[in-house]
Specification:
This protein is of the alpha+beta class. It is built from five helices and twelve strands.
Length: 226
Amino acid sequence: MTFKTAMKLPMLALASALMLAGCSNDPNQGAVLKSLKAEFSKIGKKSTPATVSKSDVSRVLSQTSGPVSQIVQSNLGDITVILVHIETNGPYKTYASASKQTVTFRQGLVTATRGLGNDMMSAQAAGTLSLISGRRSGTSKRTLRYLDGANDVIAFEFDCQMKVVGSGRVNQGVVSANTTKMTEHCVAPTREFTNTYEVDSRGMILSSKQWVSPIQGYFDISVLRR
């Protein structure tokens, strides 16, 4: 799939508004999923983008017990996505939807997506993660990989500059913490992006704006329960 043909996939983003993992072990998950599907099906019939209300978030948090995050796809009409954790593989945590779309994080940094269109296949970001862990300024290199139209992996290699820009506090879902605010500007020969992070005392990203791919653009990500 090329980046151009991936433009034809906005409905996948709309489907991702149903991101509540039906494969969870939580016995109440099915009821929550059914309720959200009904509400989002009504939204999908309108011309406005799908949204998640505060009551939706409260219901998910009250009827599930595991980690929950929220993503707003700002490049795709501010479609809002609720994600629940389904798998841990070492330092990597994967969150998934009932329709099997997934986002994988390390310390809250996006390292892979599947099923969204123009997916990030993998990321090498050890330098970025080290700076985030230490909450310090510095330079690093980052490699992001995608598939081209021939299903060959293509890689973008970025030179990145991280800066500590201040302190903050997040209050979202059931998460409340003091944070260090950081920005990361990354440049490659054909593109560039600027990510922002709010990092807790353990080096975990709790709130962020992260560039994911040329088509998906930026995700605004909030950890609602750790």
